[in-house]
Design a protein that fits this description.
Blueprint (H helix, E strand, L loop, with lengths): L1 E2 L2 E7 L15 E6 L2 E5 L5 H6 L7 E3 L11 H7 L3 E4 L12 H9 L3 E4 H4 L2 E5 L4 E5 L5 E3 L2
Parallel strand pairs: 4-5, 5-6, 6-7
Antiparallel strand pairs: 1-2, 2-3, 3-4, 8-9, 9-10
Length: 144
């Protein structure tokens, strides 16, 4: 549904009632503004990654804080983001993000910004270009 040039689509969960909420029932939202697409994935894991019909995105909020049970090939291949945003607290008790998951993104040439290292992360777009700001860096930087 377009709204002031912004197209928003809910990709998950499927239209069904659940007895208890699981990570794979997280809301996944695709936002498109001009030529820039953002994919907000909540805490989905491999099961949901198999059932969602993914499409390309410029920016991907890394699912489930970069846990080992997320960011599968089933997600990364069709989405092919240029930027991955990883939200996980420094030295969290779950060990997020998992080193294998971060390596999957970096092996694909995807730039990774992580709250544990970069602090607060802001993203801005005019529909064509994309900028990031982190509290660590303290300045806006255009994504090449």
């Amino acid at each position: 549904m377009p709204w002031h040039g912004l197209d928003l689509r809910v990709l998950n969960p499927p239209g069904r009632l659940v007895d208890r909420v699981r990570n794979d029932d997280s809301i996944v939202v695709s936002l498109e503004y001009g030529r820039v697409q953002l994919l907000l994935t909540g805490d989905v894991e491999a099961e949901a990654e198999k059932r969602v019909d993914w499409s390309r995105a410029t920016v991907l909020k890394v699912p489930h804080h970069g846990s080992r049970s997320s960011s599968s090939e089933r997600l990364l291949a069709p989405v092919a983001p240029r930027l991955a945003l990883l939200s996980a607290g420094a030295r969290n008790r779950f060990g997020h993000p998992h080193a294998e998951v971060v390596a999957r993104y970096r092996q694909r040439g995807i730039r990774v910004l992580a709250t544990a290292q970069d602090g607060t992360i802001d993203v801005a777009t005019d529909g064509t270009r994309l900028w990031t700001w982190t509290s660590r860096r303290g300045t806006w930087e255009e994504l090449p």
